[in-house]
Amino acid sequence: MAWFIKDETIKKPSSKSLWVKCKKCSSHVYDVEWKENLNVCPICNFHGSITSRQRADLIFDKGSFNELFANIGPVDSLKFVDLKGSYKDKFEENKKKAGINEAVLTGHGKINGIKAVASIMDFRFLGGSLGSGTGEKILQGANFALEHKMPYIVFSESGGARMQEGVLSLMQMAKTCSGVAKLNKKNIPFISVLVNPTTGGVTASYAMMGDINIAEPFAVIGFAGRRVIEQTIGEKLPDDFQTAEYLLEHGFVDAIVNRKDMKDYLSNVLSYYNLK
Amino acid sequence: MTKVKSKPSEKSVKNSTEKGKNGTAWDIVKISRHPNRPVLQDYISLVFENFIPLHGDRYFADDPAIVGGFAKIGDKKVMLIGQNKGKNTTDQITRNFGMAKPEGYRKALRLMKLAERFNLPIVTVIDTPGAFPGIEAEERGQAESIAKNITEMAKLEVPIVAVVIGEGGSGGALGIGVGDKILMLSNAIYSVISPEGCASILWRDATFAPEAAEALNITAKALLKLEVIDEIIEEPKGGAHSDYDKTATAVKSAILKNLKSLENISVDKLLDMRADKYAAMGKFSTDN
Ligand SMILES: [Zn+2]
After folding, report:
1. Which of B139, B202, B214, B278 has the highest number of chain A CBs within 10 A, making it the mutation to test binding with A?
2. Domain spans of chain B?
């Protein structure tokens, strides 16, 4: 729950003023201003969550985005039940709540006139977790890019593998990376954009495999969870640990790009791609 | 290891009756972590011959959590790579209980590429609670090192047989676990998260690990059914630790059989088969 601003809170028409509290600097920002600023804090530049569709609108030229594989969704193949109930009930509820069938939106379109395929993860759907359906859409996106010789962009925003699918979710790491491997072999560019948060099995698969890795400012990006590491070493970690800035310093991302500049940055980079 | 009190609940009672004499998932977790369970170095002496260990990732260090080198198994020459949990406390600490750091995964990849150059099949042996969760591991790119291995293993132009001998701990296991044939000992486990970790998140209490173990489908039997693994290597009745020789014999013949099955396949066909194998992993619906 920590990372996203509920859309309905913002949209709800109300006579009262609505304020969004920034997760980073705790400033209260008027909701209209927050939205106009693309869910980015005007005080500290913290990038809050946006929906996959909002992101598609920001990246692709108006009216150019064509969704692909929208029919794909999860199944409860393990009949997984935990304390709070069944996985099936949970994903059905998430489908209704988020208005999407999986934790990723896949499609193709034009970015400042350049054709590209994108898979955009959506944190509202089960924390953007990587399930079989998620992995399938990301792989199919790669296959589509391969077939049409278009660059492939994946926006990651995920807590990691989806536990309720057991090892099947772990195997999505290998499944998606086999798609990346095919793109590598055919020299089709693959760009990974890491959004707050990108952790666990998603970071340890396609999200780190971009020919170019881009991050949004202050995004938390890491493999092991902060709490797990603190327990292992028995001390508190510095604040900037596992941030986009930390990864840039350690050589794992190429650039940190503001949300408002992302479209132009992507098209600028992609303009260097000469299709053989 | 997290200490787990047994917590009788309706579900665990139901599960233990369902599983009957074969033992619950939690029983198998305990066997997979048994202090006397054979580890990689036991198999190196009992299954392989003429092991030539090779060290270092050429960037940073040599990670003793991952062992690798040329080896012979029966009449086959292979590149052997695996996690080694170690035998006694000192050895286990040196080897970080089989929890590899980025340099371990990078050494593994270096040896895999070497195998490709020597045109040797690769045998990987998986036995780890997970990749090491520490500051220096994150700093040096734990996620990147695993991601890279998973991606590169999809392209390796030699056959890969992976064997889960004990704990197949999440991404740390998969980092050397992509292959053409995945084998698993009958009391080994393979999981996206430790049962304790899952219980503490989804049950908000690590003592529900037995329930989580059942729900996660982490046993060889469950994973064969889910088509994540290709074959179960049966352990002796009392578990692998009760009879090392018998276990080693079963492991050796399973590896040899599977290496043989991959022998005369062209590189293109092999890579297509591998891609198809992973493309088919997982279950999803298409009628949304
Ligand atoms: Zn702020």
Report:
1. B278
2. 44-84+107-275
3-class DSSP state of A188: coil
Q: Indicate yes or no: CB of A167 within 8 angstroms of CB of B283.
A: no
Tell me if the domain spanning B44-84+107-275 has CATH number 3.90.226.10.
yes
- Please compute Rg for chain A using Cα positions: 18
- Please name each of the domains of chain A with its CATH number: 13-46 (no CATH), 50-270 (3.90.226.10)
Backbone angles phi, psi at B160, to 5 degrees: -125, 125
Q: What is the pairing mode between strands B66-73 and B76-83?
A: antiparallel
A169 interfacial to chain B (CB closer than 8 Å)? yes
B51 to chain A, any CB pair closer than 8 A? The answer is no
- Interface check B192 vs A, CB under 8 A: yes
Name chain B contacts of A82, Cβ cutoff 8 Å. Answer: 202-203, 211-212, 215
Torsion angle of the four alpha carbons B72, B73, B77, B82, in this order, in degrees rounded to the nearest 10 = -80
Residues from chain A contacting residue B211 (CB–CB below 8 Å): 82
Q: Chain A: nearest CA to B238, how far in angstroms?
A: 26
User: A1 pLDDT exceeds 50?
Assistant: no
Alpha carbon distance B162, B124 (integer Å): 5
Q: How many inter-chain contacts (A to B, CB under 8 Å) are there?
A: 207
3-state secondary structure (DSSP) of residue B69: strand
Token pair in block for residue A239: 């604040």
Residue with tokens 């199919």: A140
The verdict on a CB contact (< 8 Å) between A78 and B217 is yes
| pTM for the model | 0.93
Give B96 to chain A, closest Cα distance, Å. Answer: 12
**pLDDT tens over chain B, length 288 residues:** 344 434 444 444 344 434 444 589 999 999 999 999 999 999 999 999 999 999 999 999 999 999 999 999 999 999 999 999 999 999 999 999 999 999 999 999 999 999 999 999 999 999 999 999 999 999 999 999 999 999 999 999 999 999 999 999 999 999 999 999 999 999 999 999 999 999 999 999 999 999 999 999 999 999 999 999 999 999 999 999 999 999 999 999 999 999 999 999 999 999 999 999 999 999 999 998
Cβ-defined contact of A168 to B140 (cutoff 8 Å):
no
Q: pLDDT of A25-50, one tens digit each?
A: 999 999 999 999 999 999 999 999 99
Distance CA A182, CA B155 (A): 8
ipTM for the complex shown: 0.94
* B contact test, residue of A106, A173, A232 with most B CBs within 10 A: A173
Supply A2's token pair.
């920590």
Inspect the interface and report whether the beta carbons of B278 and A178 lie closer than 8 Å.
Answer: yes
Helices A52-59, A262-270: crossing angle, 10 deg rounding: 60
* Chain mean pLDDT for chain A: 93
CA angle A81, B188, B172 (to 5 degrees): 80
Instruction: Flag whether residue B138 sits within 8 Å of chain A, measured between CB atoms.
Output: yes
**Inter-chain CB proximity A77 and B226 less than 8 Å:** yes
